[in-house]
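Dear support,

I submitted the protein below through the web form. The confirmation email said the job was done, but the results page showed an empty box. After a refresh the structure appeared. I'm attaching both so you can tell me whether what I see now is the final result or a partial one.
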Amino acid sequence: MHPGTTTLRPAPRRAKLAARAGRAPAPAQPAVRGTLRLKVWFENEEGVLFGMGRYLLLRQVGESGSLKAAAAALGMSYRAAWGKIKATEAAMGVRLIEKGGCKRAGYHLSAVGEQLRRSYERFYREVEAHALDRAQQVLHFDLYPFDEGGGVVLEAADRAQCVNINTLQS
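What the results page shows now:
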């Protein structure tokens, strides 16, 4: 192949869908491979209500039992983590994390916090799967989720920016 030449091939998923529907497959197209990346969050008039960053905070608090450790794992200050959790709690009118029994026992997720964490994880997985499917159908790109090869290992500065289904699974 010469430099600057593009290989043409049918979109594999598109051809399968067309065959099932009894239509002719899509014409050959340039072999374009891409990565699907999504940012999904909810906000109200006061700002961010809930999104991936807050989900990750809740998950880390649940795993570590510490808001300080959760913040450090995500590359943010304790103050920033505390402010994000408190803003969401104020907007929702519920507690997401609760102090442990004694003074140095750290934090754990409240029942509402755990339910919100699980619900957002399920929601995000479904949104990503649907977006990936639709993008492959409509754009005819050979798309895959971010880092489909396995769990995502992110540097602290990238954690809040690059999250996907593999992050949810780890």
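Response: this is the final, complete result; the empty box was a page-load delay. The radius of gyration is 21 Å.
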